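INTERNAL TRANSFER SHEET
From: sequence group
To: structure group
Subject: Substrate-binding domain-containing protein

Please process the attached sequence and return the structure record in the designated field. Keep the field labels unchanged so the import script can parse them.
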Amino acid sequence: MPVNLKQLAELLGLSQTTVSRALNGYPEVNAETRQRVLQAVRETGYRPNRAAQRLATGKAYSIGLVMPIAPGIDSDIHFGEFLAGLGEAAIKHDFHFVLNPSAPEDEEATFRRLAASGTVDAVFLAYMRANDPRIAMLKSLSMPFVVHGRSIGGPQDYPFLDIDNTRAFYDAAKLLLQLGHQRIALINGLEYLTFSIRRKKGLMRALEEWGLRLDEALVHHSVMTDEYGYRSMQSFLQQPDPPTAVLCSSTVLALGAVRAINQAGLTIGADISVIAHDDVLPMLKPENFSVPLTTTRSSLRAAGARIATRLIGGILDSGDYPEQELWRAELIVRASTGPAPGR
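Return from structure group:
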């Protein structure tokens, strides 16, 4: 049976006030005491009275997020994996989510209503676009926020966590070029999202270093599902001069691309090379493909957990975190990449 505040304080040999202040992130409680209290909370199953805490601190102990919902917007397993990481960190600190669905055109107004409601202490922003106007809007709300991704253009003085998408696809394309590939296709995310823009830029930069140009007929942008990966790869293979290699912005897209390659009777790693970005989706491991996939790897779940930890740390005034983090993706070479045919 969970203990109450009085019992928790007696167990630790501390006053109820000290325990309460440790749980609420007051700076006068030292880090060692705070860790003792948090460990005891985990061991005893103690749950604070949130209504009383809110009255005492003015905090809601909740993180807000807005999810675009509209006909034609497909559910996104990538976002679900990110939320899983966010949730893992929130559970550790007994924080809640407030999830607001919104039509895409009403997203800014939804954020404003969420901030004014008093039901959240901080928000996070995803699906970044070039010159994204939502950043200036969030800065005007005077509420802590962290961006997952980065805008292109506009102000750059905002808190974010992103992976170096340009470098990831530059490294992937460079590997293919070193293997002799010159006709490299790209199955990318939606064209207006900044991670897609940067991944295409990385491919173009590598090609330019080899004195080559990207053939726009070998670039497809879409939502990241296996069906779109399949259709894109089919289209590339039907061209008079098909690619000898393809970069996919997700293992989900790669799943469809591999299906099209297999149906065409081609051998992955010999007739055509495949590299995908691996968000570390638990149900789709690149090493379990029929031909294990070479990938650029960065965990979405880890990103979600990190953003939640940063938001909660800001709310509780605990921890010292960088304002801006740019993670480098890891290039993992497996059997799906080989020399260009004829090499």
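Handover comment: The mean pLDDT is 89. The CA atoms of residues 234 and 263 lie 9 Å apart.
Transfer complete.
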